[in-house]
Amino acid sequence: SYVLTQPPSVSVAPGQTARITCGGNNIGSKSVHWYQQKPGQAPVLVVYDDSDRPSGIPERFSGSNSGNTATLTISRVEAGDEADYYCQVWDSSSDHPTVFGGGTKLTVL
Amino acid sequence: QVQLQESGPGLVKPSQTLSLTCTVSGGSISSGSYYWSWIRQPAGKGLEWIGRIYTSGSTNYNPSLKSRVTISVDTSKNQFSLKLSSVTAADTAVYYCARGATIFGAPRYFDYWGQGTLVTVSS
User: Fold this and answer.
1) By CA distance, what is B118's nearest residue in A?
2) Contact A45 B111 (CB under 8 A)
3) What is the pLDDT of residues A92-103, one digit of tens each?
Protein backbone atom coordinates (compact mmCIF):
# COMPACT_ATOMS: atom_id res chain seq x y z
CA SER A 1 0.00 0.00 0.00
CA TYR A 2 1.09 3.56 -0.65
CA VAL A 3 2.64 5.37 2.30
CA LEU A 4 2.93 9.11 2.93
CA THR A 5 5.54 10.27 5.43
CA GLN A 6 5.33 13.60 7.26
CA PRO A 7 7.56 14.98 10.04
CA PRO A 8 5.69 14.82 13.37
CA SER A 9 6.39 18.43 14.17
CA VAL A 10 7.61 21.71 12.70
CA SER A 11 8.27 24.87 14.70
CA VAL A 12 8.57 28.38 13.36
CA ALA A 13 8.60 31.92 14.72
CA PRO A 14 5.85 34.35 13.76
CA GLY A 15 6.53 36.08 10.46
CA GLN A 16 8.85 33.34 9.26
CA THR A 17 8.20 30.66 6.65
CA ALA A 18 7.09 27.14 7.55
CA ARG A 19 7.69 24.22 5.22
CA ILE A 20 5.93 20.92 5.84
CA THR A 21 7.00 17.97 3.73
CA CYS A 22 5.13 14.89 2.59
CA GLY A 23 7.22 12.05 1.24
CA GLY A 24 6.04 9.22 -0.97
CA ASN A 25 7.34 7.00 -3.74
CA ASN A 26 7.20 9.09 -6.94
CA ILE A 27 4.64 11.38 -5.29
CA GLY A 28 5.38 13.91 -8.02
CA SER A 29 3.22 11.81 -10.34
CA LYS A 30 0.20 12.19 -8.06
CA SER A 31 -2.01 15.11 -7.09
CA VAL A 32 -1.41 16.09 -3.47
CA HIS A 33 -3.93 17.83 -1.26
CA TRP A 34 -3.34 19.47 2.13
CA TYR A 35 -5.64 19.97 5.11
CA GLN A 36 -5.38 22.11 8.23
CA GLN A 37 -6.97 20.79 11.42
CA LYS A 38 -7.28 22.82 14.59
CA PRO A 39 -8.13 21.15 17.94
CA GLY A 40 -11.70 19.96 18.15
CA GLN A 41 -12.47 20.91 14.54
CA ALA A 42 -12.87 19.08 11.27
CA PRO A 43 -10.04 19.34 8.73
CA VAL A 44 -10.14 22.21 6.25
CA LEU A 45 -8.74 21.99 2.73
CA VAL A 46 -5.95 24.57 2.28
CA VAL A 47 -4.23 23.39 -0.92
CA TYR A 48 -5.46 21.02 -3.63
CA ASP A 49 -3.93 19.56 -6.76
CA ASP A 50 -0.41 20.25 -5.48
CA SER A 51 -0.58 24.05 -5.52
CA ASP A 52 -4.11 25.43 -5.94
CA ARG A 53 -5.89 27.25 -3.14
CA PRO A 54 -9.63 27.03 -2.38
CA SER A 55 -11.43 30.33 -2.17
CA GLY A 56 -10.96 31.96 1.21
CA ILE A 57 -7.53 30.46 1.85
CA PRO A 58 -4.83 33.15 2.18
CA GLU A 59 -2.14 33.44 -0.48
CA ARG A 60 0.35 32.72 2.31
CA PHE A 61 -0.46 29.04 1.80
CA SER A 62 1.21 27.45 -1.20
CA GLY A 63 2.27 24.02 -2.33
CA SER A 64 4.70 22.23 -4.60
CA ASN A 65 5.26 18.64 -5.63
CA SER A 66 8.17 16.97 -7.39
CA GLY A 67 10.02 13.69 -7.29
CA ASN A 68 9.44 11.97 -3.97
CA THR A 69 8.43 15.02 -1.94
CA ALA A 70 5.48 17.39 -1.78
CA THR A 71 5.76 20.54 0.30
CA LEU A 72 3.23 22.84 1.93
CA THR A 73 4.70 26.29 2.46
CA ILE A 74 3.18 28.83 4.83
CA SER A 75 4.68 32.30 4.47
CA ARG A 76 4.56 35.02 7.11
CA VAL A 77 3.33 32.54 9.69
CA GLU A 78 0.75 33.78 12.18
CA ALA A 79 -0.25 32.43 15.58
CA GLY A 80 -3.56 31.33 14.06
CA ASP A 81 -1.73 28.95 11.70
CA GLU A 82 -0.83 26.68 14.63
CA ALA A 83 -2.55 23.40 13.80
CA ASP A 84 -2.06 19.88 12.50
CA TYR A 85 -1.50 19.57 8.77
CA TYR A 86 -2.21 16.46 6.70
CA CYS A 87 -1.27 15.60 3.13
CA GLN A 88 -3.52 13.31 1.09
CA VAL A 89 -3.38 11.49 -2.23
CA TRP A 90 -5.41 8.97 -4.14
CA ASP A 91 -3.70 5.68 -4.88
CA SER A 92 -4.65 4.13 -8.21
CA SER A 93 -3.87 0.60 -7.03
CA SER A 94 -6.62 -1.96 -6.39
CA ASP A 95 -9.38 -0.68 -4.08
CA HIS A 96 -8.34 2.83 -5.14
CA PRO A 97 -7.67 3.94 -1.58
CA THR A 98 -7.39 7.48 -0.34
CA VAL A 99 -4.22 7.83 1.72
CA PHE A 100 -3.40 10.40 4.39
CA GLY A 101 -0.01 11.27 5.76
CA GLY A 102 0.49 10.88 9.49
CA GLY A 103 0.16 14.59 10.10
CA THR A 104 2.50 17.39 11.17
CA LYS A 105 1.96 19.58 14.21
CA LEU A 106 2.93 23.16 13.35
CA THR A 107 3.95 25.11 16.43
CA VAL A 108 4.26 28.89 16.25
CA LEU A 109 6.90 29.88 18.76
CA GLN B 1 -23.37 26.09 0.99
CA VAL B 2 -23.17 22.33 1.36
CA GLN B 3 -23.35 21.02 4.91
CA LEU B 4 -22.85 17.51 6.24
CA GLN B 5 -24.02 16.22 9.61
CA GLU B 6 -23.18 12.87 11.18
CA SER B 7 -25.65 11.11 13.44
CA GLY B 8 -25.78 7.84 15.31
CA PRO B 9 -25.06 6.19 18.66
CA GLY B 10 -22.10 7.53 20.59
CA LEU B 11 -21.56 4.26 22.42
CA VAL B 12 -21.33 0.81 20.87
CA LYS B 13 -20.59 -2.47 22.64
CA PRO B 14 -17.66 -4.66 21.55
CA SER B 15 -18.50 -7.18 18.81
CA GLN B 16 -21.56 -5.19 17.77
CA THR B 17 -22.08 -3.11 14.62
CA LEU B 18 -21.38 0.63 14.51
CA SER B 19 -23.95 2.48 12.40
CA LEU B 20 -23.71 6.13 11.38
CA THR B 21 -25.63 8.32 8.94
CA CYS B 22 -24.50 11.48 7.20
CA THR B 23 -27.20 13.92 6.12
CA VAL B 24 -26.30 16.29 3.32
CA SER B 25 -27.98 19.67 3.07
CA GLY B 26 -27.55 22.65 0.77
CA GLY B 27 -27.34 20.49 -2.32
CA SER B 28 -28.41 17.18 -3.80
CA ILE B 29 -26.27 14.17 -2.99
CA SER B 30 -26.81 13.07 -6.59
CA SER B 31 -25.65 16.20 -8.34
CA GLY B 32 -22.26 16.97 -9.74
CA SER B 33 -19.06 15.00 -9.95
CA TYR B 34 -18.75 14.02 -6.31
CA TYR B 35 -18.38 11.02 -4.09
CA TRP B 36 -19.09 10.59 -0.39
CA SER B 37 -16.66 9.26 2.17
CA TRP B 38 -16.22 8.26 5.78
CA ILE B 39 -12.99 9.12 7.59
CA ARG B 40 -12.09 8.48 11.22
CA GLN B 41 -9.60 9.81 13.72
CA PRO B 42 -8.73 8.13 17.03
CA ALA B 43 -7.99 10.55 19.84
CA GLY B 44 -4.58 12.14 19.40
CA LYS B 45 -3.92 10.32 16.14
CA GLY B 46 -4.12 10.95 12.42
CA LEU B 47 -6.84 10.63 9.82
CA GLU B 48 -7.81 7.22 8.46
CA TRP B 49 -9.90 6.87 5.30
CA ILE B 50 -12.63 4.25 5.71
CA GLY B 51 -14.30 4.19 2.32
CA ARG B 52 -16.29 5.99 -0.36
CA ILE B 53 -19.49 5.65 -2.31
CA TYR B 54 -20.55 7.21 -5.59
CA THR B 55 -24.20 7.99 -6.19
CA SER B 56 -24.16 5.18 -8.72
CA GLY B 57 -23.74 2.91 -5.70
CA SER B 58 -20.16 1.96 -6.53
CA THR B 59 -17.96 1.64 -3.44
CA ASN B 60 -14.30 1.43 -2.47
CA TYR B 61 -13.05 0.53 0.98
CA ASN B 62 -9.82 0.77 2.95
CA PRO B 63 -8.23 -2.68 2.52
CA SER B 64 -7.52 -2.87 6.25
CA LEU B 65 -11.26 -2.48 7.06
CA LYS B 66 -12.83 -3.93 3.94
CA SER B 67 -14.11 -7.14 5.54
CA ARG B 68 -16.09 -5.19 8.16
CA VAL B 69 -17.31 -2.08 6.30
CA THR B 70 -20.43 -1.33 4.31
CA ILE B 71 -21.25 2.12 2.94
CA SER B 72 -24.64 2.78 1.37
CA VAL B 73 -26.51 5.77 -0.04
CA ASP B 74 -30.14 6.82 0.11
CA THR B 75 -30.60 9.51 -2.51
CA SER B 76 -34.26 10.02 -1.59
CA LYS B 77 -33.20 11.16 1.88
CA ASN B 78 -29.97 12.86 0.75
CA GLN B 79 -28.06 10.60 3.13
CA PHE B 80 -25.29 8.07 3.10
CA SER B 81 -24.45 5.60 5.84
CA LEU B 82 -21.64 3.60 7.40
CA LYS B 83 -21.81 0.20 9.01
CA LEU B 84 -18.74 -1.25 10.71
CA SER B 85 -19.17 -4.72 12.14
CA SER B 86 -17.45 -6.62 14.93
CA VAL B 87 -16.12 -3.48 16.56
CA THR B 88 -13.41 -3.42 19.23
CA ALA B 89 -11.93 -0.68 21.37
CA ALA B 90 -9.56 0.07 18.48
CA ASP B 91 -12.55 1.41 16.53
CA THR B 92 -13.11 4.17 19.08
CA ALA B 93 -12.66 7.42 17.17
CA VAL B 94 -14.22 10.59 15.88
CA TYR B 95 -15.97 9.66 12.64
CA TYR B 96 -16.26 12.25 9.88
CA CYS B 97 -18.30 12.20 6.72
CA ALA B 98 -16.99 14.22 3.80
CA ARG B 99 -17.71 15.13 0.20
CA GLY B 100 -15.03 14.30 -2.32
CA ALA B 101 -14.47 15.91 -5.70
CA THR B 102 -13.61 13.87 -8.76
CA ILE B 103 -11.96 14.42 -12.11
CA PHE B 104 -12.78 12.03 -14.95
CA GLY B 105 -14.21 9.77 -12.26
CA ALA B 106 -11.01 9.65 -10.22
CA PRO B 107 -11.16 10.72 -6.57
CA ARG B 108 -9.51 13.99 -5.61
CA TYR B 109 -9.78 16.11 -2.48
CA PHE B 110 -12.40 16.50 0.25
CA ASP B 111 -13.99 19.93 0.08
CA TYR B 112 -16.73 19.65 2.68
CA TRP B 113 -16.61 17.81 6.00
CA GLY B 114 -19.08 17.12 8.77
CA GLN B 115 -18.22 18.29 12.27
CA GLY B 116 -17.45 14.73 13.33
CA THR B 117 -19.06 12.46 15.88
CA LEU B 118 -17.30 10.56 18.65
CA VAL B 119 -18.04 6.86 18.80
CA THR B 120 -16.79 4.94 21.81
CA VAL B 121 -16.62 1.16 21.83
CA SER B 122 -17.05 -0.07 25.37
CA SER B 123 -19.13 -2.50 27.36
Assistant:
1) A40
2) yes
3) 887 788 999 999
